[in-house]
Design goal:
Strand content: under 5%
Order of helices and strands: HHHHEHEHHHHHHHH
Number of helices: 13
Number of domains: 1
Strand order of the largest sheet: 1-2
CATH class: Mainly Alpha
Largest sheet: 2 strands, antiparallel
Helix content: over 70%
Number of strands: 2
Structural class: mainly alpha
CATH architecture: Orthogonal Bundle
Amino acid sequence: MDAFLTQAFVTSLLLGAVTAGLPLLLAGLGEQISEKAGVLNVGIEGMMLLGAYYGFLAAYSTGSVWLGFAAGAAAGAAAAVPMVVFCVVLGMNQIVIGIGLTLAAEGITALLHHFQFSRTYPRLPATEVLAIPLLSEIPVLGRALFSLHPAAYLAVALVAVAAFLFRDTLLGLSLRAAGDKPAALDTAGVDVRRVRTAAVLATGALAGFGGAYLAVVGAGVFVPFMTNGAGFIAIVLAMLAQGRPVRVLYGALLFGASLSATTALQVAGIDVPTDVVQMLPFAMVMLVLVLFGQRASLPAALGTHYERGAR
């Protein structure tokens, strides 16, 4: 029985780490794109929340999970527009605007949910899974890592795509230049504002996708304020990843495991106060910052407005 409980605990922990970690992965990749271009997108929490609400609403109304993902990504990109206007174009403080955007998204989604569903919390049916032949049959690991919704595999594939774009393409070079030496990029004839705009919109779309995944696949329901600080954890992941998408993946799984610890401990029959377990992700953030914060490598022009033609 002990061996069975141990296996159940490990499987539950890994499955929870993947389910909770994928929204962090998508948001973290988006934040990494934005930071590479020199924009500190503190509003990513609000973009995730809007993506979660509209993703859930679309999936609930149409019955299509993929339309839910598309609506979530579109909502996140739309939420990024104020960041573009106020920060990239007008040069306002990125932290202040980002916090304002998050607070606005929290209020808007709570209000919309109240008008749409009142005090009810309708649930979506369980989503389909795609089991990879042979790999899904591996004891303990198979069900947790290789029997997931197709969007989970897409999210992991985006890590490889981002790594390729950052390292081997002109787009990646332009992103790095916009964040490190925008004047040099301007001299080369590339519009820094346009690069940063594209980066922030991509960030919003990925954060919205992550929020939609959280509501549609992870929870199957939308609850106001359900991101619960996930966007800020994604910012930490992006900062500590040193520009490497695969490190965002590792960090997302680590934090995902801490977020899912409650369920895993319950499966193992271990009684731990819920408040203690809910504190784990933020304690993990503090620990990671203490251990690795000094190694963070940030773009030289991060958070700095650039006006075309300036030197």
